[in-house]
UniProtKB/TrEMBL annotation:
Protein name: DinB family protein
Phylogenetic placement of the source organism: Bacteria, Bacillati, Actinomycetota, Actinomycetes, Kitasatosporales
Organism domain of life: Bacteria
SUPFAM superfamilies referenced in this protein's UniProt entry, alphabetically: DinB/YfiT-like putative metalloenzymes
Amino acid sequence: MSTPPLPEGEPEPSHADPHALLEGYLDYYRATLLRKLDALPEPEQRRSRLPSGWTPLELVRHLTYVERRWLCWGFEAEPVPDPWGDRGPSGAAADPWKVPDGMTSAQVVAAFQEQAARSREITSSAALDARARTGGRFEVAAQVPTLAWILFHLLQEYARHVGQLDVVVELAAGATGE
């Protein structure tokens, strides 16, 4: 499956449509994440420089699963065989993020890009005030969030993690930036 390239910059300042802004900023953070990963040589992509122990590739895989959990399994209530597949053997929240042995960085990035494309399919035709379906991540109708809430949640997750990756890139390569 071929996925379109992510846009490099922020959405145009003239955008006033909240839906376009949310999707545009998600694409901006996705592209920034991949640009920062690409700034690291392969050994640094698999090395942790932080006390928490995660590696840049594990972060990319984590964000792949974050989108899958919130949009496929959550908003669409699609069956997702292993929604917590980014975690270690027990799948518990305490397990650190993992990339399976033998999975290449190209495979991690391809899975991320495929998930981003699927996420765009889901969000592009749904209204911001639409509520997630029950039966997937959400079992009780009174507890299901709106698409707007989910997209804002994803934005804050990306903003936090891309900022953390910026620190890792600075520690590993001395580069700083956007």
